[in-house]
Design brief:
Blueprint: E1 2-6, H1 19-24, E2 35-38, E3 47-48, H2 54-58, E4 64-71, E5 78-79, H3 83-92, E6 113-117, E7 122-128, H4 131-139, H5 145-154, H6 160-169, H7 174-186, H8 193-205, H9 211-216, E8 218-223, E9 228-231, E10 237-249, E11 255-256, H10 266-272, E12 291-293, E13 302-316, E14 321-333, E15 339-342, E16 347-350, E17 356-369
Antiparallel strand pairs: 1-3, 1-16, 2-4, 4-10, 5-11, 6-9, 6-10, 7-8, 7-10, 12-13, 13-17, 14-15, 14-16, 14-17
């Protein structure tokens, strides 16, 4: 059975006032429009065409949450736990109300994420940069007291990245944080010009936030349309700007590390954080054929991008599945052969008994389902 899905955008402050409206071909609402959720998450289950919501169909058992995400300003720097960490944290905080703002664990699940760019440029921070590279970047910031203090910490022994993050977020380093942010504003580096410009822009929106300097330790990633990154448990990240399709395990577990007025629990963040430095691989669209798979090593979800150029394209699915249309005019057929036209910015849900979908038309579709 196929069920058309829609939802209203969530108005988080970092949302864009134009990107979702442009995608859907409508006038902007004038308010920030940050995310559109296609899932059965109790916080905002998708609307079914018959007037119900998707959780009434699934019983809240869908293992993934599919979203459109439109960022005009940076989201919080954050990290997500493993399943084991989430279960332990959920049990430890069982005495707190679920909506307690100091609560770190809203459920007992992990929250790996995959984001694929829909805009021609999507900016993100992902993972911690190799220390030697960051030391070269800091050379472009001069020798003020804060910069020297950070450089000294990164030149020590042991887990210097964990030590630096803990120091920056401790509350005792605000003088150095402010000094480093001033140095970023005046910095010059040919090798790291794009990274410094990105952090300078982040600083302009987050005055005095220690997360600005944490961002200076992270890889700056630019995705082009159709490119994606997978963000595993423990990996520090933040989306900066752009429009994308995001899919994640169905969870609300977020440990924040800056660029937010929300609760930050530094010890818990550090207990979850993986400080292994390195680049985050960019997953690129297929060079040939209409289907791009974005491989991830989690059982909660998988995602394929389908570029349709007319005709009919049958694709096997392992439900429950969703087809989210992001461009053009696309029809989706299930086992009964009845075509459902899916507007851009909306989706169709295929119940678990559907084993194949036929896509037709011209446009772009993202096909989500549980992972292998």
């Amino acid at each position: 059975m196929l069920l058309p899905l829609s939802n209203v955008p969530r108005d988080y402050a970092w949302g864009s006032t134009s990107l979702l409206a442009e995608l859907e071909g409508r006038e902007p609402s004038g308010a920030p429009e940050a995310e559109v959720w296609f899932g059965d998450h109790p916080g905002d289950p998708a609307d079914v065409a018959d007037g119900t919501t998707l959780d009434a169909v699934t019983g809240g058992t869908l293992p993934y949450l599919l979203k459109l995400l439109a960022a005009a300003d940076p989201l919080s720097i954050q990290v997500h736990p493993t399943v084991a960490q989430a279960r332990e944290g959920w049990a430890r905080e069982s005495h707190l109300a679920v909506d307690d703002p100091t609560r770190n664990y809203r459920d007992d699940n992990h929250k790996p994420e995959l984001i694929v760019a829909l805009s021609e440029r999507f900016e993100a921070l992902g993972g911690l940069r190799p220390v030697a590279d960051t030391l070269r970047l800091l050379e472009g910031l001069g020798d003020s007291d804060g910069v020297v203090a950070l450089r000294t910490r990164l030149s020590g022994d042991g887990d210097v990245l964990r030590d630096a993050v803990a120091w920056l977020l401790s509350g005792s380093a605000q003088r150095e944080v402010d000094d480093i942010i001033r140095a970023v504003d005046a910095a010059s580096s040919e090798e790291f010009a794009e990274e410094i410009a990105a952090v300078r822009s982040i600083a302009s929106r987050n005055q005095g936030d220690p997360g600005v300097v944490v961002a200076l330790l992270m890889n700056f990633i630019v995705l082009r349309r159709g490119e994606g990154i997978f963000l595993r448990a423990g990996l520090l990240h933040a989306y900066v700007s752009g429009l994308g399709v995001e899919i994640m395990a169905a969870s609300d577990n977020v440990l924040r590390g800056g660029l937010t007025p929300k609760h930050i629990d530094v010890p818990e963040l550090l207990s979850v954080l993986d400080t292994t430095p390195g680049v985050v691989p960019v997953l690129r669209p297929a060079a040939d054929g209409p289907v791009t798979a974005y491989p991830v090593d989690v059982p909660d979800f998988s995602l394929r991008r389908v570029a349709l150029e007319g005709g009919r394209l049958p694709l096997d699915v392992s439900g429950p599945a969703m087809a989210l249309v992001t461009a053009g005019r696309v029809d989706v057929e299930g086992a009964d052969g009845v075509a459902v036209t899916v507007p851009v910015g909306e989706a169709v849900f295929a119940t678990a008994d559907e084993t194949a979908l036929v896509l037709s038309g011209t446009g772009e579709v993202f096909l989500a389902q549980p992972g292998a």
